[in-house]
Every structure is written in C-alpha cells, then in structure tokens.
Amino acid sequence: MTSLPGPTGSGFLAPRKGRSIGSAAESRRVLVTVVHEEGIIYTVNMLILNKTAGVFSKPSKRNMYEFLRSFNFHPGKLFLHKLVLGIETSCDDTAAAVVDETGNVLGEAIHSQTEVHLKTGGIIPPVAQQLHRENIQRIVQEALSASKVSPSELSAIATTIKPGLALSLGVGLSFSLQLVDQLKKPFIPIHHMEAHALTIRLTNKVEFPFLVLLISGGHCLLALVRGVSDFLLLGKSLDIAPGDMLDKVARRLSLIKHPECSTMSGGKAIEHLAKQGNKLHFDFKPPMQHAKNCDFSFSGLHHIIDKMIMQKEKEEGIEKGQILSSAADIAAAVQHTVACHIAKRTHRAILFCKQRDLLCQSNAVLVVSGGVASNLHIRKALEIVTDATQCTLLCPPPRLCTDNGVMIAWNGVERLRAGLGILHSTEGIRYEPKCPLGADISKEVGEAAIKVPRLKMNI
C-alpha cells in the first residue's frame, strides 16, 4: 500500500473547508477530501475525536485502569520464562502478541486495515491513525486473553517506535506508555526493520552473522546482521520500495476492476495475474545495471512502465481506468524485472560479504523477509542466487513476513536476553518516522565495484 502525504508533506490531511470538526470530547462524522497521487479525488467518511487529525491523544488513566481491571485470571498457571508483550502500529496493521523467552507464541491478535485502504487506493495516514485508535485496546486485550497471561505477569512491553507513519506510530507508543506507567514494567523501543530481520531466529535455528534482505511496501534494504542490534547496511532503495511500485502499477492497470483481483492488494494482484502472462512480451530493463553497488531503484522503472501503459491504451483505443488486454503480460514482465533487479543486488551483497570474510564461505544464510518476500517469483529468483553462491535461503512463514505483533514481542525477547535497550524510564521517548538501520557501509560496497556473474533466470 502507498502512503499518501498531506499537502504540506507532513502526512496530515485537512478536512473539507467549511466543515466543523468539533471538540475532543465530541465524536462526529466528517468528510475528508483526499487527492490521490494520480489525481483521483476521494471523499472519506471518517470519525475524528480531536480538533485536528494530527492531534496526539493519550488514553485516559481511568480508561487504562478499567482496561487492566478487566483481566481477572485465576492463579494456576506458573510462568517459568520471561514474557514480553509486543505492540505494532507502524503502518496499517494493529497487532499485539505475547511471546516467552524460549520463542513460544502464547497469544496474538491482529486487525488489518487493508479492506478500507483498498477502497481509496492507498493508505491515508489520519484514517490509519483513527482505525488504530479504535482497535488497539481490543487487540491487546485479545492477545493477552489468548495467552492466559495477566498484564502484571509480563516482564516487559516492546513497541514499534521507528520507522513508519508518524500518526500510526503515535497511537502504539501512546497506548504502550500508559500501560508501562500503570504496570511499572520496563519498556523496550523496537526498530521495525530490526524486528523483521530477527524474526527468522524465532522460527529457525540461525546464528549470527547472516545476510538479510528486507523487501516490503515501504522498505527495501540489504544488511549484514552481526548481533541483536548490530547491523551493517550494505544497500537500500534510493527512491521507492518494490511493494510500493507494484501497488502503483496495479492501480495504473486498474486491477481492482479485474474480477479475479478485486479483493487483492496491488502486489498480490500483480503476482496472480502474472501467472497468466508472458514475461518476455515486454522488455523492461532492470534498473542500475552499470552501478556496481547494492542499492536499489524502482521509480525510474515505474515511470517507463507508466509510459508504456499509456501507449498501449492508445493502441487499444481504451481510456485510462479500463483493463488492457495485455495486462497479464505487463504484470508478468514487471514482476520478472523487479525479481532480476533484487536478485542481482543481493548476489553482489553475498559476494562482497564473502570477499571481506563477513560471511562463511559455505553454508552462509540469506534471510528474506517483509511483505514482498511472500512473492514466489521473486523468491525463486533469489533461490537461483543462493544455489550459485552456496548459501541457504530462509524465509519466515508468510504470516510473519508481513507486519505482526509476534516479531515485535520476539525482538523484545532478544533485547531482554541481551540486556540491550531496556528502559526503566520513558521520559523523552519519541517515535521516529524515518530511521536508518545500523552502520551504513554502502559507500564501501560501491567502491569494491564487484562484478556479478550473469545467471540464467529461468523461472
């Protein structure tokens, strides 16, 4: 999904002029006019509880006290391990989970906003914020209830505070700080991408170091993971993320009008339709072919695809918004080009790490996570790379590749065990919408100028 920035670039969207929003004590339905990046105007019916969509509202202490009183567990189950509650609200999923230090997921719950954002063609930050507010208490309660853990039995509370949508991060942080204050528990701030990277250690026996490729709708990076909070950034997207580009292409092709794709996200629709198409029908060149580094770029490719779709619409005599007869071929070609680009940059990262003895020469591990990691075509391209470089490709199960509370709780467990970033005072804690991961050595990777052998991508 694509985040739609507000007119000032702050992520806030203003209500339609002339409408009264009311006070914080009132609950009214207001119409918010949203101008989509492609010029489409949407009017969203949205519940606002504050004077402006951007106001940061904390749950009252009384509400939190009532929430905690609702847990009436009878003694009987003795927890021998440390327990961490994880809370995730960085984008458009409200999620929570309780995980113990051995990796047992005791309870989890999630509320997805996908259906709402599909109707508007992208994530509208104030709408995402409001949906988080409406669901966070219920989701945390469901996770705790499923785990049979009372809040007082928790060892710590871990919450995503960076990076992500500011308005969404604010909801999770506000709720968590109230919970921490009431329970007098340690707080563990979580970097969203660190959590994605470490999830594999919950599902598989993976030792440090290992290489991680994180690909999603909002992120694309390659990093060497040397420890729980020890990362070397090898490369990242210089513009947009692959999932974002696939979503944009799906919208431009109007795949939401396709009978087989109407309920799918853009990336899923592209993957589904690509199975029916010929990837060789269109010849899109992978980006940055002459740049011998591990950075990624997708906006230039997106521009070329957009121009080609416009040309095909003229050839077929159809208007924008109608489905092209060649839509499946376009989907297949786009997906394959993205897969080849990702595969080549990852191949160079593996060669660089082995050249510098940062990874084992044999049986090194490549972990691929994030929402786009569930794309089987991209995964097969990466398998070709790992086979050629004597590496093992590992991916968390699909439900743990997308945003979830389990990965946040597990990251909390990892930090708790390592004694890293455990706060007993939350004074001055802030969310960070933009935040790099680890130490950036991408310039060093580029200076190495490693030539990547050509591999046949017969997928």
Automatic annotation (TrEMBL):
<dbReference type="GO" id="GO:0061711">
    <property type="term" value="F:tRNA N(6)-L-threonylcarbamoyladenine synthase activity"/>
</dbReference>
<keyword id="KW-0808">Transferase</keyword>
<dbReference type="InterPro" id="IPR000905">
    <property type="entry name" value="Gcp-like_dom"/>
</dbReference>
<protein>
    <recommendedName>
        <fullName>N(6)-L-threonylcarbamoyladenine synthase</fullName>
        <ecNumber>2.3.1.234</ecNumber>
    </recommendedName>
</protein>
<dbReference type="GO" id="GO:0002949">
    <property type="term" value="P:tRNA threonylcarbamoyladenosine modification"/>
</dbReference>
<keyword id="KW-0819">tRNA processing</keyword>
<dbReference type="InterPro" id="IPR017861">
    <property type="entry name" value="KAE1/TsaD"/>
</dbReference>
<dbReference type="InterPro" id="IPR043129">
    <property type="entry name" value="ATPase_NBD"/>
</dbReference>
<dbReference type="InterPro" id="IPR022450">
    <property type="entry name" value="TsaD"/>
</dbReference>
<keyword id="KW-0496">Mitochondrion</keyword>
<keyword id="KW-0809">Transit peptide</keyword>
<comment type="similarity">
    <text>Belongs to the KAE1 / TsaD family.</text>
</comment>
<dbReference type="GO" id="GO:0005739">
    <property type="term" value="C:mitochondrion"/>
</dbReference>
<keyword id="KW-0479">Metal-binding</keyword>
<comment type="function">
    <text>Required for the formation of a threonylcarbamoyl group on adenosine at position 37 (t(6)A37) in mitochondrial tRNAs that read codons beginning with adenine. Probably involved in the transfer of the threonylcarbamoyl moiety of threonylcarbamoyl-AMP (TC-AMP) to the N6 group of A37. Involved in mitochondrial genome maintenance.</text>
</comment>
<dbReference type="GO" id="GO:0046872">
    <property type="term" value="F:metal ion binding"/>
</dbReference>
<keyword id="KW-0012">Acyltransferase</keyword>
<dbReference type="Pfam" id="PF00814">
    <property type="entry name" value="TsaD"/>
</dbReference>
<feature type="domain" description="Gcp-like">
    <location>
        <begin position="104"/>
        <end position="410"/>
    </location>
</feature>
